[in-house]
Design a protein that fits this description.
By secondary structure, the protein is an alpha/beta fold. It has 8 helices and 6 strands. 43% of the residues lie in helices and 14% in strands. Bound molecules: 3-methylbut-3-enyl trihydrogen diphosphate (IPE) (2 copies) and magnesium ion.
Length: 246
C-alpha cells in the first residue's frame, strides 16, 4: 500500500511542524487560521504514525523563542493547544497512545498546564506510541537546566563527578527515558534546527520537505519515510563494516 518496510521504520520520529503562517498568508488568511489547519494535520499524522507502528513521535509545537511573537498570536496558539490536548486525550486513549510533554512547563498558562496534566494522567497506562509535544521547548535551555541540576547533585553528593557519563547526562534532559530520534522531518522548506533537540539529534537522519505543515499529508509522510529507509546509517564506521556487521 505505502511500500514501506515495516521493520525499517524509525523507532523515534521527530517533526518540526513549520509553515502554518505562510500557508495562511499565501491564501490571504490570518496566521491563526494557519495554526487551526495545522492542528488538523497533527491529528491525521499522529494517527497515521500510530497505525504504522512508530514507537515514539515527538512534535515541536511551540518553542521557547515563540513567546517573542505578537501577543495575539501567542494567545491564540495557547488557546488552540489547550483545546487540542483536551479534545484529543480521549482519542489518544482509544488509540493506546501515551501522551508526554517536554519543555519548560512552568511558563505555560495554568489552564494549558492543567489540560497537559489531564492528558498525561489519562493516558499514562497506555502501551502504544509515545506522543511527545515540545511546548515552550528550547534545547539550549534544556542543556543548561540539565547542567545546573547536575552541578547541584554533585554539590549535594547525590552524583559523583566521575560517574557522569553520556547516559547519565542524557537522563537529566527533558527527554530522559526516550531514545534519540532516528529521523527528523522539518516542513516548509526551512533548513535549520531552530534550537530543537540539539543533544539528541547527534546521529539523526534529517529530511526537509518543502510542503507547509497544513498541507503535509500521509502521502508526504510515506515519501519521507521511504527516503529514510534508503539511507545507510554509519555512525562513523565504514559502509563495509555496516554491511558485514563486523
Ligand atoms: C509553525 O508555523 C507553528 C509554530 C511555530 C507555532 P509558523 O507559525 O512558524 O509558520 P511560518 O513559519 O511563519 O510560516
Ligand atoms: C520552530 O519554528 C518551532 C516550531 C515549529 C514550534 P519557527 O518558525 O519558530 O522557527 P524559525 O524562527 O523560523 O527558526
Ligand atoms: Mg515558522
Amino acid at each position: 500500500m505505502h511500500g514501506l518496510i515495516p521493520d525499517k521504520l524509525p523507532r523515534h520520529l521527530a517533526i518540526i511542524m513549520d509553515g502554518n503562517g505562510r500557508w495562511a498568508q499565501e491564501r490571504m488568511l490570518t496566521r491563526i487560521i494557519g495554526h487551526q489547519k495545522g492542528v488538523e494535520t497533527v491529528r491525521v499524522i499522529v494517527e497515521e504514525c500510530s497505525r504504522l507502528g512508530i514507537g515514539y513521535l515527538t512534535l515541536f509545537a511551540f518553542s521557547a523563542e515563540n513567546w517573542l511573537r505578537p501577543k495575539t498570536e501567542v494567545k491564540a496558539l495557547m488557546a488552540l493547544l489547550k483545546k487540542y490536548i483536551a479534545s484529543e486525550a480521549a482519542r489518544m486513549d482509544a488509540n493506546n497512545i501515551r501522551f508526554n510533554v517536554i519543555g519548560n512547563r512552568d511558563e505555560l498558562p495554568p489552564d494549558v498546564n492543567k489540560a497537559v496534566q489531564g492528558a498525561i494522567d489519562r493516558t499514562s497506562g497506555n502501551t502504544g506510541m509515545i506522543l511527545t509535544l515540545a511546548l515552550s521547548y528550547g534545547a539550549r535551555q534544556e542543556i543548561m537546566t540539565a547542567a545546573t541540576r547536575i552541578a547541584s547533585d554533585i554539590a549535594s553528593g547525590v552524583l559523583k563527578a566521575d560517574d557522569l557519563s553520556e547516559t547519565a547526562f542524557a537522563s537529566y534532559l527533558f527527554t530522559g527515558g526516550l531514545p534519540d530520534p532516528d529521523f527528523l522531518i522539518r516542513t516548509s522548506g526551512e533548513m535549520r534546527i531552530s534550537n530543537f533537540l540539539l543533544w539528541q539529534l547527534a546521529y539523526t537522519e534529517l529530511y526537509f520537505s518543502s510542503v507547509n505543515w497544513p498541507e503535509f499529508t500521509p502521502a508526504e509522510l510515506y515519501r519521507a519515510l521511504s527516503d529514510y529507509q534508503a539511507r545507510e546509517r554509519r555512525f562513523g564506521r565504514t559502509s563495509a563494516q555496516i554491511n558485514t556487521r563486523s
